[in-house]
Amino acid sequence: MPVLHALKRAGVLLLTAAALYAAPAQHAAADEPGWTAEPAAGTAAAAPGGARPYFYLAGTAGTVLEDRLALTNTTDRERTVTLRGADAYNTADGAFAVRPAQQSTGAGSWISFGAAATVKIPPRTRAVVPFTVTVPPASPPGDHPAAVVATEGGHEAGVRVHLRVGGPTLAALTVEDVSVRGEGAAAVIAYTLVNRGNVALAPELSVRAEGRFGEVAGRGARTLPVELLPGQRARLTEPWPGAPVFDRVRLTLTVTAPGGARATAATSAWFVPWRLAGRPAGALLALGGTTAAALYLVRGRRRTRRDQRSDVTPVPVPVPEPEHELTGAAR
Predict the structure, then answer these.
(1) Rounded CA gap, 132 and 65, in Å?
(2) If residue 163 lies in a helix (H) or strand (E), which one and from where to where?
């Protein structure tokens, strides 16, 4: 009986664990919006097969550009989706994000769906919605990142819009605020990238390290997982598993990007194994304190003896008359 009772309890626990494990998947399915938004196929900018990961539009200032958005309802009930344009920007760590409607005063405000800003999609139906991008006459040349945002029932889906206005382009960036955190295999290099040009950049970073006690491993060139938009900055970190245990290192960061963008920045950092040096350092400090105390006591005793001697009244000591030795014969 005790064994059977234990098995029954184990069975209840297993069933409870299985229910808890399955619950997130059920919630995830319930949280799905039931519709998708993507660029419509069948345009000149479409990739082979008709699929496009984003919108790409180009034109001169003062022109009106057109494209189409595809909305697909995958459920058995009607969906009502609201559409708008939004400005795009980089978050503090370089991720792509879009601004709210009331804060979109750039390229996002150039996007218009006209009367189709609210779309009703029947069940199991695909709707294609046209939109326009009106580029103001005084728009500066270069990239103007934006997005098309679809909203329904608290769910949002954004599709990127790469918009380039014709004219001279400049690829430029700077590297700022370089520092080193951590030690050993956990060391990381922190730095800030700033896009000083008018085109989006896909930067590539390399790290060179020079130590006082020999060669130090840096990092070879690699493409960073960030697209830096014009006028934006991002605070990034780079793992540095080759950091030394004990050395003074000068780090030089070099960042390049297509279009001729190049920037360098340098910093110096000490690497000291404080955990290993903690006890010897404490012993040296204790020894130094003991030595200082001993010197203080010795000096104090000397000073006391000197003062005691100065308080004693001197007593004259009689000096005996000198005795003359007689030499030679007596007369």
Answers:
(1) 6
(2) strand 155-165
Q: What angle do CA 78, 83, 88 make, to 5 degrees?
A: 140
Q: Which long-range contacts (CB under 8 A, 24 or more apart) does 307-315 make?
A: none
> CATH number for the domain including 217?
2.60.40.10
pLDDT at 117: 96
The model's confidence at residue 169, banded by pLDDT at 50, 70 and 90, is very high
Residue 259: give the domain boundaries.
173-274
In whole angstroms, give the CA distance from residue 71 to residue 119. Answer: 9
Question: How many domains would you assign to the chain?
Answer: 2
> Does some domain include residue 29?
no
Instruction: Supply the pLDDT for residue 196.
Output: 98
pTM for the full predicted model: 0.71
Helix (H, G, I), strand (E, B) or coil at 265: strand
From 131, 165, 199, give the residue that closes a domain. 165
Q: Is residue 304 part of a domain?
A: no
Please state, as a whole number, how many other Cβ atoms lie within 10 Å of the Cβ of residue 126.
14
Residue 101 lies in a domain: yes
In angstroms, the Cα distances linking 169 to 97, 130, 134, 165 are: 23, 29, 20, 9
